[in-house]
What we know:
The chain is α+β, with helices and mostly antiparallel strands. Helix content is 34%, strand content 17%.
Amino acid sequence: xxxxxxxxxxxxxxxxxxxxxxxxxxxxxxxxxxxxxxxxxxxxxxxxxxxxxxxxxxxxxxxxxxxxxxxxxxxxxxxxxxxxxxxxxxxxxxxxxxxxxxxxxxxxxxxxxxxxxxxxxxxxxxxxxxxxxxxxxxxxxxxxxxxxxxxxxxxxxxxxxxxxxxxxxxxxxxxxxxxxxxxxxxxxxxxxxxxxxxxxxxxxxxxxxxxxxxxxxxxxxxxxxxxxxxxxxxxxxxxxxxxxxxxxxxxxxxxxxxxxxxxxxxxxxxxxxxxxxxxxxxxxxxxxxxxxxxxxxxxxxxxxxxxxxxxxxxxxxxxxxxxxxxxxxxxxxxxxxxxxxxxxxxxxxxxxxxxxxxxxxxxxxxxxxxxxxxxxxxxxxxxxxxxxxxxxxxxxxxxxxxxxxxxxxxxxxxxxxxxxxxxxxxxxxxxxxxxxxxxxxxxxxxxxxxxxxxxxxxxxxxxxxxxxxxxxxxxxxxxxxxxxxxxxxxxxxxxxxxxxxxxxxxxxxxxxxxxxxxxxxxxxxxxxxxxxxxxxxxxxxxxxxxxxxxxxxxxxxxxxxxxxxxxxxxxxxxxxxxxx
Length: 580
């Protein structure tokens, strides 16, 4: 909860609700945890959205406390169910309403709004809970024989409609049983896990390596997406995800050493050598396939020494966005090493972050007036360094030196510590605010330094074309050649289809601005219409050839993921109008 309000405080929903309810599916994370905005942020939102306290006296949206119930019978045959029960066990093959809906949607606001409105569609016919890779291999082989569509549900944090069972079939829910450590190799600094392993479980195993595996020291994977607490290793891999510390540790495509898949044409297994020149890299070919080639079963990851005591935190305020960009580029191109967390917010995000992380409730707010920094122009930079003690200390010193050279005001590590406290629980605020009709969602893309300002301006222009809409942007996952731009938009909206149209418009603006369609969220079915237009027709034929090889009968995640089996008239090119 937030700090106590001095004035009127909305009745943020914080009650018990059924484990079989719609809310239990769409709510983020721990059912007993919520996050409400600070009073200063609440007042700011009222001003921005032209609302008053009276607009927050009653919930405007369905709270989703009804138990899941719908009249959509499962069409799967008893013969198929009997076979799957023979593999997984009777209790691990389910066709009840709740089980089917629990794996049907991810966590984009379009999914959440449909669940709130009890719009039930694109269900699997049955949900299976496998226990080992041999079971998965047998299931995939049987589904290939019987032409049964196969979908996979990891942590359920997809924001691209990546898990949606458009063609029915079965969904493999990896959370319950497929989440074990297969092997730990301290000499090679690797760990092999089942794809359903959650982020916290992975880190716990690595942090406790001395006790669990007899290791000499503690380790970390270094991969911490915002969805860390409720996403799976398999989900990270098949979407080519990146964590908030990726500027130092790398994205998941840098961390993965080997993979194993159950595909319709048999098992695909890569080796664990750190580098080789033996043709195209099969590891990179399989990553990002989003379940369209096969089911990821085992993953071998590089691991790193866990040294939280060497972290050096910093935060700075720059006078404007262009200056902040220039400083960020110098930090990344100066060859002094790369900070681990690296986040530069544009003016609108800076304004809200100052409220969200309590800066405007602290003496720091007076510094900006003294230094002549203007609200609506200044930009917040925060981060920290990791690594060996001397390296981390020297890199932090260098980073601070560059920031001062570009006119940055040091805010010490205070703001960074505030960000760390909320780095994984900000999504809880989405549910709290949406109970009152305020929706919040995110988009991201990759840019080069040379087109960053252009992309930022053009995408922001579209986002702000909707009246009374907050559009925040920050740079993160940064490289010597460019960065990820991450948009957070907040507006008032009630209709799922209205949201879908607005979301599509943002995707269209991203494509036409010249940025990549995704940096780390993946493509799924929601971004798929723009994919071929982004990478090119000839280039897309390579994807199709791989799909035809691994999955000749299109049983793996069918229905538009990565644009496969998407009708031509639904594809959107850079020179095509969105709804023509």
